[in-house]
Specification:
- The complex is a heterodimer.
- Chain A has 16 helices and eight strands.
- Chain A has helices at 43-46, 51-59, 66-81, 87-115, 119-139, 160-186, 188-194, 202-208, 212-217, 224-227, 233-236, 248-269, 323-328, 331-335, 343-348, 354-358; strands at 2-7, 19-25, 28-35, 149-150, 153-154, 289-298, 301-310, 315-321.
- In chain A, helix 3 packs antiparallel against helix 4, helix 4 runs antiparallel to helix 12 and helix 5 packs antiparallel against helix 6.
- Classes of the chains: A alpha+beta, B alpha+beta.
- Chain A binds chain B through residues 52-53, 56-57, 120-121, 123-124, 127, 134, 137-138, 141-142, 145, 147, 155, 182-183, 186-189, and chain B through 1-3, 5-6, 9-10, 13, 19, 30-31, 33-35, 54, 56, 77-81, 84.
């Protein structure tokens, strides 16, 4: 006998609304249907206004990777104007992007652990994440919506004192991340729960074109920072973190290992701050004209912004393809054949951000 | 072995002081440089309206007739764009947030700057009228 269970839109495992219609045969999921669109805000239409204000709007697309959204938008608009970014602004943007990745991954790891019932380590993750948010408040003036990216540069500087502070933070953070890695990687219980659950094969990942940690967990070395470098990544050389198994464990371990990669990139960027001229901002000399796109590696994968200007202050069209939208297609094939108890857990390892997903 | 470490962590957390703060009762300490509420200086403003046009949240309204600035505190997103564009540095950003409230908390600021074009013009007109009245 088959039973139909409505999983969501309000479910404790996701904070945001998304609905899964599951057809169960006993405990096993036979068929699944994904329904999204509960938090659609029509943001792409709203982007057709003053391009300076839209930089603040782009931060509001996603609540976790705000810096990635605004950087990607600014890169796209700067491309339509042929604007050259000052060296210092590029360094500051890169540091902020990596800090953002740190706190986003800590959140994702924490939520994954909470989904399997490991609340103590979840609290530990969030306690560590608070350190990153403190650095954000010191440098940008706000914890989540930083608002330092504008078309043409950044608004706040990172001086030598702040660089020293961030380097101290990197040392403290690395110690804590090592502790977290040891606890996650050595725990027999976590391993037993995660390994072999929700396996995405390399072929499936390539067929569905999933991005970010989901793809890298399935042995697909796709990272925009390595494939199409932007900002400082052209000089820094990033090698994608790859795991072979493709299960929930692999996806989580990719995130854990990327924490160290991010800390390493911040450490490489900090000494560069010293020898660069002080200007943070180039004034745009023309209006956005023609079309352009930019790609950025957000914590959840590739983020894409397409911008078309009409030689006035207002933009003609902005199209956003978020990383969660690209990954959303992978949820259903993984759920089919899984147990009912694993459904929430498998979806949370995708790091779903429904605010991005629906826009 | 690893469970023992986690157990140690649990015991440490149970004994130590709580990491979280009781927010509404004990205030949250912001770092210096935090972007919070915006205040307008009526003695410096020239009523140019640049902040009104640049505000992404549309929370500033400038009334040139009454020479007042209307600032909707609860609507402001604290982006700091108005502070950056102001030609006379009349807008400054505080480091203290307003506490949660049920009211709309709209702030009105009266502009008294002598150099504001509208006020200057009005004064000149008033002086002219007064001069004419004296002649009569």
């Amino acid at each position: 006998m088959r039973t139909v269970v409505q999983f969501g839109p309000q479910h404790p495992v996701w904070i945001e609304p998304i609905r899964l219609k599951l057809t169960l045969d006993g405990e096993v999921v036979k068929d699944a249907e994904l329904e999204a669109g509960y938090v659609h805000r029509g943001l792409e239409k709203k982007f057709e206004w003053d391009y300076n204000k839209a930089a603040y709007l782009s931060e509001r697309v996603c609540g976790i990777c705000t810096q990635h959204h605004s950087t990607c938008y600014c890169l796209a608009v700067e491309g339509t104007m042929g604007l050259e970014l000052p060296g210092r602004a590029a360094i500051i943007r890169t540091i902020m992007l990596e800090l953002e990745r740190l706190h986003s991954h800590l959140l994702a790891i924490g939520l994954t652990l909470e989904a399997i019932g490991f609340e103590n380590l979840f609290m530990q993750c969030f306690k560590d994440r608070e350190l990153v948010l403190d650095v954000f408040e010191r440098t940008t003036g706000n914890r989540v919506l930083h608002g330092i990216n504008i078309v043409g540069g950044v608004t706040r500087n990172i001086g030598p004192e702040m660089a020293k502070e961030i380097s101290g933070f990197c040392d403290a953070m690395e110690k804590r991340c090592h502790e977290l890695e040891r606890m996650v990687a050595n725990s027999h219980t976590i391993r037993q729960r995660m390994q072999g659950v929700g396996v995405m094969s390399q072929k499936l990942a390539e067929d569905l074109c999933v991005v970010g940690p989901v793809a890298r967990g399935s042995n697909v070395p796709y990272d925009v920072r390595a494939v199409a470098p932007y900002l400082l990544y052209k000089e820094l050389k990033v090698t994608p973190v790859v795991e072979k198994d493709g299960d929930c464990w692999a996806r989580t371990m990719v995130r854990v290992r990327e924490l160290f990669q991010s800390i390493d990139i911040i450490r490489q960027c900090l000494p560069l701050v010293d020898g660069v001229p002080e200007d943070l901002f180039t004034k745009p000399k023309s209006m956005p004209e023609g079309e352009n796109f930019a790609r950025v590696e957000a914590p959840r994968g590739e983020l894409f912004y397409y911008v078309r200007g009409k030689k006035s202050k207002e933009l003609d069209r902005v199209k956003i393809r978020t990383s969660t939208y690209a990954n959303g297609i992978g949820i259903v094939p993984l759920i089919k054949g899984a147990h009912m108890a694993d459904v929430g857990f498998i979806t949370i390892t995708f790091d779903p951000c429904i605010g991005c997903f629906d826009r | 072995m690893d469970m023992l470490e986690i157990l140690e962590n649990i015991v440490k957390n149970a004994v130590s002081k709580p990491y979280t703060s009781k927010y509404p009762f004990s205030p949250y300490q912001h770092f210096p440089g935090t972007r919070a509420d915006v205040t307008f200086d009526g003695t410096k403003c020239i009523l140019c309206g640049l902040c009104e046009r640049s505000c992404p949240a549309e929370c500033i309204t400038i009334d040139k007739e009454k020479t007042t600035i209307e600032y909707l505190n609860t609507r402001c997103i604290r982006c700091g764009y108005c502070v950056r564009v102001c030609p006379t540095n009349a807008i400054s950003q505080n480091e203290v947030y307003t506490k949660p409230s049920r009211e709309k908390l709209t702030v009105y600021t009266l502009v008294t700057n002598e150099n504001a074009p509208i006020i200057k013009k009005r004064k000149a007109e008033a002086a002219k009228k007064a001069g004419e009245a004296k002649k009569d």
